[in-house]
Amino acid sequence: MSRPLGQLFASSDILSGEEAMRMRNYCSTAYMDPDRDLKDSYGILFEDGSLTAFQEHFQSRIQHFEGRQYEAAQELFKVKWGPTRIPVYVVLLAFTSINPGLRYKYIAIAEWLVDTAKVPVDGTDISGTTALMHSISQKPYFDPEFAQLMFDAGADINRRDRFGAIAAHDITTVQLLYDHVAHEKAGRALQWFLEHGGTLDIKDGDGISVRRIIASLEGTDRTLKGVVDRVEQQQSGGSNTGSGIIARPTARNSPCPCGSGRKFKKCCGQA
């Protein structure tokens, strides 16, 4: 017998079948309303995207914890907003879409939370999805810059959500089978996923792997299969481009490969 939604929310097991469908339906229809859901002391800071306001409030929380920054960071990490309990980095990602003109501000806040405040990046919403997973699963859209920020901070590229799925399950679930533009967009996200260590053989709660999904699409569009073949050939050394191994993007906090002595994010990575 399928459990009530309340019990599904409180559980942590992998969902499948009818329970997975009901949870997915809830998550796809229960939207966050900023006017309703962002009324707490941190929530009210998102709309303006003021880094200074975030810094000042975070500092006040450190003082509340008698100078213990770790506890202030953990407090923010545990805050969740809206009916689907969205963590801070997912809210910031959402606001890059809600207020695209302020995108640079939300990226700056996320960078500060990672680099200085040390707020962990693996917080999940009620579906078990992290900010990294959202940013490469095209929900709301493929955002490689935000994804790279989360990845460099230690987010798990192969993390499974409440349905046992990884980000690539969402990437490859193309709703319009004959929409070649959609397939091309999915292909770019899938390539990013694979180049950052993603695997195609993890099965979701219903026993379906990403590789199986891609195989099922071959009759309508081979874009995703082409991406997989190309990347796997390069990773196995079959490419005739240089070493045959895909060069991983330089991590934001790594020394810049240009030899300047500065961090990549403060040098060539600013472009």
TrEMBL record:
Residues 232-260 are annotated as: Disordered. Residues 233-244 have a biased composition (Low complexity). SUPFAM superfamilies: Ankyrin repeat (SSF48403), Sec-C motif (SSF103642). Pfam families: SEC-C. It comes from the Eukaryota. This is SEC-C motif-containing protein.
